[in-house]
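Support reply, case 0932

Customer input (verbatim):
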Amino acid sequence: TILCQEIDTSGVYIGKGSMKEMAQFTVKEVSARIEILTMKSLEFKGYICHSFIQENRLCVCVLSNEEYPTRAAHGLIRNILKEFSSHIKENEWQNAGEGEIKWAKLAQYLASYQN
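Our regenerated output:
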């Protein structure tokens, strides 16, 4: 389940709807397949899906192009997990459905880590 997401398809030369669908598919597949407490960066169709899953099964994925630094993506993941966990209670996100968590801080993280 994707609890919350922030997607920026500017500069991507495929249809915005299809990019969003590809991103959602990739995130769901990768998060379902990685081992707990494992930081992974996996290539999928020319993009890299950087991800980490905690023991409580909360997972953050960052989808980027091949040029984006792995270290920056992994730093972003750690920051998001730390801040998300401090603002959204575990029982709240565990009981949430697809897209039900509204967390404005995610857009701020995307903007600050893009360049």
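We compared this against your earlier run and they match. Two observations from our side: The chain has a mean pLDDT of 86. The two ends are 28 Å apart (CA to CA). Please reopen the case if you see a mismatch on your end.
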